Amino acid sequence: MVKRLLFDTLNKRMDYKKAIVVTGPRQVGKTTLIKQIAREADPDYLYVNGDDPALQALWSNPGGQLLEQLVAGKKIIVIDEAQRFTNIGITAKMMVDAGKGVQLFLSGSSALDIADTINEPLTGRKWEYNLLPFCWKELCDEYGLATMIPRMPQLLITGCYPDVITHPDDAKEILSNVAGSYLYKDILELSGIRKPELVVKILQALAWQVGHEVSLNELSGKLGADKNTIGHYIDLLEKSFVIFRLPPLARNLRNEISTSRKIYFYDNGIRNTLINNYAPIEARNDIGALWENFLMSERMKLLTYKPFYGASFFWRNKAKAEVDYVEEENGKFFAYEFKWNPDAAKKFPPSFIEAYQPVETQTIHRNNFWEWLV
Fold first, then answer.
1. pLDDT band at 109 (very low <50, low <70, confident <90, very high)
2. Residues 78, 35: contact at Cβ < 8 Å?
């Protein structure tokens, strides 16, 4: 079993006082991880599945006496897919405030829905973490660098969902099921979206624009939909762990781009499923986009688990000088360019260097990327 980077972090957070909340996409291993931690601490833990209609009825709005009976004698309680329970935040608050030395775990596949439910009741009473598809470091820790480097081209195509990694021959079917049951059904159900066909079109348009700045006005014209509606749907997709946005760095120069965003997918396999292209890398004309999305998603995963207390950007000015990726931490800047070809020359723009004086500039390519992702 691949050890998740969050495993030790969550173990250390178990204080039997605050709730531990783990969110992330479906089928990335949230339940497996939490159950493993709970089982090792106390095999007699209580597991409550939010996808079970009978349990939904029982655990939604339970009164104090019923709640005491439900958790009697249990020291660890795992509530899976917590967003399925009505007022689960109030219920969780009651358990935490009871002060009976119970460790509560909550998991959810929609940051949007579970946040709305638990944030106010559990203010100051919870630790929150995100779990994403397997990251490069987790895979290297499990299988070794010598095994994973030859597998990297396949990760660019089918991604890092756990089921895909463990059953590579079934990758296309697995990804199709994930895209069908999660990207569309869950998001539409949880978010109340009235135009599901527009969500699909937005995702496909974004899949083709990986690595490029995304203009809502341009998407609006291309899709024939209101700009504000598209922006709202993109926000929902981000809160549902399908995509993430990268803002521009603009502080010093008058001609810097300051309003557009780049958008990436958390998983290359999902991106390729949306455009229905599983061709190997040697037969692709979008290797640059695949490589950039892979590096960005892997870096975001790593910084999520590290954790990272800085900020991430891209940089471009109106003269079209650009830097693919910039991190800022403690007032220092680190700049990176992404090139599939190790021999591709890249000189960082003098205007950027002068304005931000980065302490590091580096081109990340297929012969050195693993050093950047550990």
1. confident
2. yes
Kindly report the CATH number assigned to the domain that includes residue 76.
Answer: 3.40.50.300
Q: How many domains does the chain have?
A: 2
> Whole domain around residue 106: which residue ranges?
6-130
What confidence score (pLDDT) does residue 40 get? 97
Please give the distance of CA 345 from its chain centroid, rounded to a whole number.
Answer: 31
User: Distance between the two ends of the chain, CA-based, in angstroms?
Assistant: 19
Round to whole Å and give the CA distance between 183 and 185. 6
Q: Is residue 318 pLDDT above 90, yes or no? A: no
Residues 257 and 342 in one domain: yes
Same domain, yes or no: 156 and 300: yes
| Closest by Cα among 112, 62, 55, 54 to 78 | 55
Q: Are residues 113 and 208 in the same domain?
A: no
Spatial strand order of the sheet with 213-214 comes to 213-214, 261-265, 243-246
The string of pLDDT tens digits covering residues 246-259 is 999 988 667 777 77
Phi, then psi, of 324 in degrees rounded to 5: -60, -45
Listed residues 103, 130, 157: the one ending a domain: 130
Return mean pLDDT, the chain.
92
Q: Collapsing DSSP states into helix, strand and coil, what is residue 58?
A: helix
Express as a percent the part of the chain with pLDDT over 70.
Answer: 94
Residue 213 and residue 316 in contact, taking contact as beta carbons nearer than 8 Å:
yes
- pLDDT at position 189 is 66
10: tokens are 């969550």
Long-range pairs, 42-48, Cβ under 8 A, ≥24: 42/75, 42/76, 44/74, 44/75, 45/74, 45/75, 45/76, 45/77, 45/78, 46/71, 46/74, 46/76, 46/77, 46/78, 47/78, 47/80, 48/77, 48/78, 48/79, 48/80
CB atoms within 10 A of CB 122: 22
Percent of the chain with pLDDT over 90: 74
Whether residue 322 contacts residue 315, with contact meaning beta carbons closer than 8 Å, is answered with yes
